[in-house]
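in:
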């Protein structure tokens, strides 16, 4: 088996085992057993459990970005595209939150490695929303503020609403409300930190 294919297989199985046991209870032995390989074989691809966890978290966040890109490329109005993209990320995360009964490990910013991955993913996410607004001729002076508001609204809903249908309804209402109102002037002029 090629190196990348084996590494991908290990990441996929590790994601499944981590969803079952969480990062503290998951051992390299658990992952090896699920793959029917030896524990040392995993170390040929990952130098430590920490490195494996980081790569799994990066992989989960990358899948989220892939779903967002796919949703933004589908037809429909700008509102519909943005709603689908926000739901592709925060709706997916909320589903895991509800399934596990707690915030998923790959969003736990108390872990420094995960915090860096979450921050990077959030930055990329907001950049994609910003680019999509520009591509759809949203007023240039409002793009930065609107992208920030949309992402903050979606993330805030995910963190406070624990019912998927309520999340989707509130997300749709929020996006329609936000996109229906123009934000005037550059963000720097409106926000003083």
């Amino acid at each position: 088996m090629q190196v990348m294919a084996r590494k991908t297989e290990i990441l996929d199985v590790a994601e499944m085992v981590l969803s079952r046991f969480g990062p503290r209870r998951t051992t390299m032995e658990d992952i090896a057993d699920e793959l029917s390989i030896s524990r040392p074989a995993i170390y040929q691809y990952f130098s430590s459990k920490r490195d494996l966890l980081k790569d799994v978290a990066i992989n989960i966040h990358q899948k989220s970005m892939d779903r967002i890109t796919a949703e933004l490329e589908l037809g429909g109005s700008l509102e519909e595209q943005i709603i689908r993209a926000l739901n592709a990320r925060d709706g997916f995360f909320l589903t895991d939150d509800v399934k596990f009964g707690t915030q998923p490990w790959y969003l736990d910013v108390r872990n420094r490695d995960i915090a860096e991955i979450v921050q990077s993913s959030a930055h990329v996410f907001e950049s994609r929303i910003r680019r999509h607004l520009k591509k759809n001729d949203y007023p240039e002076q409002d793009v930065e503020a609107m992208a920030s508001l949309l992402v903050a609204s979606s993330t805030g809903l995910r963190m406070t609403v624990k019912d998927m249908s309520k999340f989707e309804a509130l997300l749709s209402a929020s996006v329609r409300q936000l996109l229906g109102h123009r934000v005037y002037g550059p963000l720097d002029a409106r926000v003083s930190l």
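note: The first helix runs from residue 3 to 25.
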